[in-house]
Amino acid sequence: MTILAEPPPHTDTLAHNHQQCVDDALKIADQLCTERGVQLTAIRQQVLALIWESHKAVKAYELLDRIKPLQAAAKPATIYRALDFLLAQGLIHRVESLNAFVGCSCSGHQHEQLLLICKQCEQVEERMAAGVMQVLAEEFRQAGFSAHSKAIEVHGLCRRCSQL
Amino acid sequence: MTILAEPPPHTDTLAHNHQQCVDDALKIADQLCTERGVQLTAIRQQVLALIWESHKAVKAYELLDRIKPLQAAAKPATIYRALDFLLAQGLIHRVESLNAFVGCSCSGHQHEQLLLICKQCEQVEERMAAGVMQVLAEEFRQAGFSAHSKAIEVHGLCRRCSQL
DNA sequence: TTGTGGATGTTATAATATAACTGATGGCAC
DNA sequence: GTGCCATCAGTTATATTATAACATCCACAA
């Protein structure tokens, strides 16, 4: 079983240039939406930017609080509609086990990912985990199951936090 | 990569003797609780039995409605407390992506499982998926991640429903 | 008896999410 | 330009999921 190379994990907010993450995410979002002929409106972009403020998963009502300075009229529906859009475009992940949302760093790729959620620093690392997905596919074949979507969410301690 | 043998899937309510599933589940629960010196009280047993009425994932408030004939005083806390107990004992799974609960057919085993959730018939098949878990473990090692819990929930069509 | 711990009862409320209708905007066919 | 349509956002209300906090009960042991 060969495991494909992974992009460097960004679980260390101190050590990486986070503004670069945000800029990249917004730029990619912009490009993808243009290509697809869908609108990355101001609200949607603001929500995406708020989600990318950290590598932690963010709750919808936290986003609501944080968008209010920019969108005074914001209500739950404002946020949930933006989240629905971003999810549909693959720009964010929903973290089911936390009822929260995190930026997707492989936006535009179709493959599903593995989400490693740190209990300590709360950051979420996304990994393509090609090997895992391949073995999973074999498992589905055996089970006669046609998979439409999968979430692999793992709670534990990230490299950094387990070393502390 | 060898895949271990799986117990026969019980995704077909019509074709299998479901009463057997329920009886087995209750008997195993009883044994485990006795062994562990914890109390499988009437409420807890009733909730477990209600969850086992089908192989579908059941919502907490559905359980609340269904337990009322038996426990007229039942309130949300009644159900959530019973669910917490059953989860702690490994007798049920929480299906994060549905905010619902399903009986665990490998109660007492420590290993994590793969949950295959059918969009059509709503039944949940549990698989040990030893191969998947093994490859996952290798992935964690590479990521320097110490996993404490993992949920692998896959939505799609089960064998039966994809053949219809 | 008297405490102690576990389970349950009870009330209230928090947290998460959606429905349904209204209005505003902008493109485009005519 | 006018009218039409689709998309997005505003607004109100409510549904759904989950927990907090405190009271009560009861079995059992000291």
Automatic annotation (TrEMBL), chains A, B:
**What is a single Pfam family found in this protein's UniProt entry?**
FUR
A single GO molecular-function term is: zinc ion binding
Q: Which SUPFAM superfamilies match?
A: Winged helix' DNA-binding domain
* Example GO biological process: negative regulation of DNA-templated transcription
Q: Which GO terms describe its cellular component?
A: cytosol
Q: What cofactors does this protein use?
A: Zn(2+)
Where is Zn(2+) annotated to bind? C118, C121, C158, C161
Cofactor, how bound (note):
Binds 1 zinc ion per subunit.
Superkingdom of the organism of origin: Bacteria
Entry keywords, A to Z = DNA-binding, Metal-binding, Repressor, Transcription, Transcription regulation, Zinc
Family the UniProt entry places it in: Belongs to the Fur family.
> Could you identify this protein by its name?
Fur family transcriptional regulator
Q: What is the lineage of its organism?
A: Bacteria, Pseudomonadati, Pseudomonadota, Gammaproteobacteria, Methylococcales
